[in-house]
Design goal:
Blueprint lengths: L2 E4 L1 E3 L13 E4 L4 E6 L7 E6 L1 H7 L27 E2 L26 E2 L34 E4 L2 E4 L21 H6 L11 E4 L4 E4 L19 E5 L4 E5 L3 H6 L11 E5 L4 E5 L3 H5 L9 E3 L2 E3 L79 H4 L3 E4 L4 E6 L4 E4 L30 E5 L3 E8 L9 E3 L64 E7 L5 E8 L3 E5 L4 E5 L15 E6 L2 E6 L17 E4 L2 E7 L4
Parallel strand pairs: 1-31, 2-3, 6-7
Antiparallel strand pairs: 3-4, 4-5, 8-9, 10-11, 12-13, 14-15, 16-17, 18-19, 19-20, 21-22, 22-23, 24-25, 26-27, 28-29, 30-31
Length: 631
């Protein structure tokens, strides 16, 4: 089995952002190998542990000789040659408390230069007594190394590197004075027109506002000629209004009598209006008598009594409204838009109705006229078309139709007797007819034939019918219609039966016995045994035309990877056994043998699936691929 193990990898040069504890990763861009390490098993850090970048540094390296872009390996004397410019930082050569670092002479043999952290620094030897400049110094200098290690501020001394808190008493003011509450309060002032309202105390710095002392300046102006006045007192802040008196109001009102009947006046002293209505004489002066009407001292008369019980007579009454008569109205001429009569109306003359609709709600209408005229104004039949009677509710009509010049009923007509000639179809019986006016012949043709016989209705006639040969087939016979009683003995032969005509539905149960069946070519007997199976030949009509036997095998030969055997089908049982460790099991149900393969475990061989990310299977060969993926 081929195995392939791939760690996490990247074509870039960056380190992996995170790794699992113990996980490896490689950057082909930087040539470095990384490892995930943890001290507590939870927090994992990524470290460089090697790779091509480091092996390249060690390849072709000679101990004691420095090469470009290679690692430096000291020789047996801890020396190296071929160094170029070497930079030193504060941690490269840590000195003692005196701040001195010593380099061995052999380390700087030749023309090797040492570069200090400052570009203007100077390398001081052990015998050098020169001055140390600030540019040469790195870090801080202890106070003990300084001649003057403190400073004094206004009499207060403080060591270098320490701090001191100074107050205003320790610092002289000069012309720039420092802040105090008193100085700030004195610098503020208040200008006010009324100190009783707003004031300022420069000792406490407090402003005081007294709203009660605030008196606004209000200018009051009374304009116009009206009554009442408004005044304002500034010192007290009082606004006053002198009300309007009753006398002022009454004096502003007046009354004007424009003339006419009666009188109208006003008293300004009391404010009262006085109205006196028209006198009787003034009122009567506005009325005058007319046609048929007289007025005397206010009494109106029309020349006759018009009480509720009076009979009033007028030659002619014309009105656009309604006239209601509770008693008897007698008139020889009435012209009105509407007439309403609650009692009986007797018209002794002619009644002419000129409206478009006449409605009679009477339950019984009695007419003495012998003839009623419909469509009175029709000048011809076309104008009278559709005239007639309509029965509401039943939608039954009797109307005149000009097209055929007839009366038409839209309902059936039920009459006891009709006299005269009738055109069209009639139903019912004639009570006086004894024979047909013209005799008719009756005959039958087709499968059933009969000779013609004359019939005139005066008596019965008989037809002699005969069924033609070959007319009755199986389709004309109902199931079970032809019984044995209908057929004479030995009268049914094969020639009498059409092919396919006799179906099972045509044969009564147990009607066809062995005596009725012709012998076949099959030899009577039993067919088949424990070693033979019967064979039969059946024709399209379901008849046996041949019978025989065929030998069968009684054993089943089986073979395995190793060994063979023969199973006797009549006596032996074929058993399929699974693996002893349970990897393969078998079961039988419903004539079916089921072979099951167990799922593989660490202790049982069986069926297993492979993760395509880590395994490949080709022609049964499994290859392991452990791939950490990319980052």
């Amino acid at each position: 089995m081929a195995n392939t193990i791939k760690i996490k990898r990247s074509t870039g040069s960056a380190a992996p952002a995170n790794l699992a504890f113990g996980e490896l990763a490689y950057s082909s861009g930087s040539g470095k190998l990384f490892f995930g390490s943890s001290t507590d098993g939870t927090t994992v850090s990524v470290f460089e542990i090697g790779g091509k970048a480091y092996t390249d540094l060690l390849s072709n390296v000679t101990a004691g000789t420095a090469s470009a872009s290679k690692a430096v390996i000291l020789d047996a004397n801890k020396a190296v040659s071929g160094l170029g410019s070497v930079g030193l930082n504060s941690a490269a050569f840590a000195g003692s408390t005196s701040g001195t670092s010593t380099l061995a002479a052999q380390a700087i043999a030749g023309s090797t230069a040492f570069v200090l952290p400052s570009t203007s620094g100077t390398l001081v030897g052990t015998g050098d007594t020169g001055t140390v400049t600030n540019a040469m110094l790195a870090g801080s200098i202890e106070n003990a190394k300084l001649v003057n290690s403190s400073v004094t501020v206004n009499g207060s001394s403080v060591s270098l590197g320490s701090s001191i808190i100074l107050s205003t008493t320790d610092i002289g003011e000069g012309t720039n004075q420092y802040f105090t509450n008193s100085r700030a309060r004195q610098a503020v002032s208040l200008t006010t027109s009324d100190a009783n309202v707003l004031s300022y105390d420069n000792t406490t710095g407090a402003f005081t506002f007294t709203a009660a002392n605030l008196k606004p300046t209000i200018t009051v102006e009374n304009t116009g000629t009206g009554h009442g006045a408004i005044s304002y007192v500034q010192n007290t802040g009082t606004l006053s209004f002198a009300k309007v008196t009753d006398a002022n109001i009454r004096g502003a009102v007046s009354a004007v009598d424009a003339g006419g009947d009666g009188s109208f006046s006003y008293d300004s002293a009391t404010g009262a209006f006085t109205y006196t209505g028209p006198s009787a004489a003034e009122t009567r002066a506005h009325f005058s008598a007319g046609t048929g009407v007289t007025i005397t001292d206010g009494v109106v008369a029309i020349g006759q009594a018009v009480g509720t019980a009076s009979n009033v007579q007028f030659a002619t009454i014309s009105t656009t409204g309604n006239i209601t008569v509770g008693g008897v109205l007698t008139s020889d001429d009435i012209t009105s838009e509407n007439i309403s009569i609650t009692g009986n109306a007797v018209i002794t003359g002619n009644l002419t109705v000129q409206g478009t609709t006449t409605t009679v709600n009477s339950t019984t209408v009695a007419i003495s006229d012998l003839n009623m005229t419909l469509a009175k104004d029709a000048a011809n039949a076309a104008q009278a078309d559709g005239a007639g009677l309509t029965v509401a509710g039943a939608n039954a009509t009797l109307t005149y139709t000009q097209a055929d010049n007839r009366w038409n009923l839209n309902k059936d007509l039920n009459v006891a007797m009709v006299y005269g000639n009738v055109t069209g179809a009639l139903t019912g019986n004639a009570s006086t007819a004894t024979a047909l006016q013209t005799a008719r012949d009756f005959s039958i043709t087709g499968d059933l034939t009969a000779a013609a016989v004359s019939f005139d209705g005066s008596g019965n006639v008989a037809l002699s019918a005969e069924l033609n040969a070959g007319v009755v087939g199986t389709t004309e016979l109902a199931d079970s219609a032809v019984t044995t009683a209908k057929i004479a003995d030995a009268n049914v032969t094969t020639a009498k039966i059409a092919d396919g005509a006799v179906t099972t539905a045509k044969i009564a149960d147990d009607a066809v016995t062995a005596d009725k069946l012709a012998n076949t070519a099959v030899t009577p007997g039993s067919y088949g045994s424990s070693t033979e199976v019967p064979t039969f030949t059946v024709d399209a009509q379901g008849r046996l035309t041949a019978a025989g036997t065929a030998s069968i095998s009684t054993t089943l030969n089986i073979a395995g990877t190793t060994g063979t055997d023969a199973v006797a089908l009549a006596s032996d049982t074929l058993t399929i056994t699974g693996a002893a460790n349970g990897a393969i099991s078998t079961s039988v149900a419903n004539d079916t043998v089921t072979v099951s393969v167990a799922v593989a475990t660490t202790s049982v061989k069986g069926v297993a699936s492979f993760n395509a990310d880590h395994f490949t299977v080709t022609d049964g060969a499994v290859s392991v691929v452990l791939d950490g993926g990319t980052y």
